[in-house]
Amino acid sequence: MDKVEVGEIFTITDENDQDNEVEVLAAITLEGTDYVAVGFVDDIQEESEEDIDIFFLKIDDEGDLSPIESDDEFEKVSAVFEDMMDEDE
């Protein structure tokens, strides 16, 4: 997989083997590892007052996306993305 860009849309398969289209909302590099924040395309396209679900994924050395497995890593990544989103407002 090439470098993931903000705005890119791709399909991921969940634990129930269902395909879901997600859009990259933000990307960061933290401590030498690349991460992306993604949301479901259907949720993003709906004009709704409700918050959308955002998921953080890690990009491994081969460019594949994988879930963040440690709570500490998740906390660090979510804090950086949250700070980034606050700056955009």
Structure overview:
This is DUF1292 domain-containing protein. InterPro entries: UPF0473 (IPR009711). It is a single chain. The chain is α+β, with helices and mostly antiparallel strands and 89 residues long. It has one domain. Helices cover 26% and strands 38% of the residues. The protein has a 5-stranded antiparallel β-sheet. The mean pLDDT is 87.
List its salient traits.
26% helix; alpha+beta; five-stranded antiparallel sheet; single chain; DUF1292 domain-containing protein; 89 residues
Q: List the domain count as a whole number.
A: 1
Number of DSSP strand runs: 5
List unreliable stretches of 5+ residues: none
Element-by-element helix/strand order: EEEHEEH
- The overall pLDDT average reads 87
CA radius of gyration is 13 Å
Name the overall outline: globular
Distance between the termini: 31 Å
Pfam family, one: DUF1292
InterPro entries: UPF0473
Protein name: DUF1292 domain-containing protein
Give a brief rundown of this model.
This protein is an alpha+beta fold.
Write the layout of secondary structure elements.
Elements lengths: L8 E5 L5 E12 L2 E8 H5 L8 E6 L5 E3 L3 H18 L1
Antiparallel strand pairs: 1-2, 2-3, 3-4, 4-5
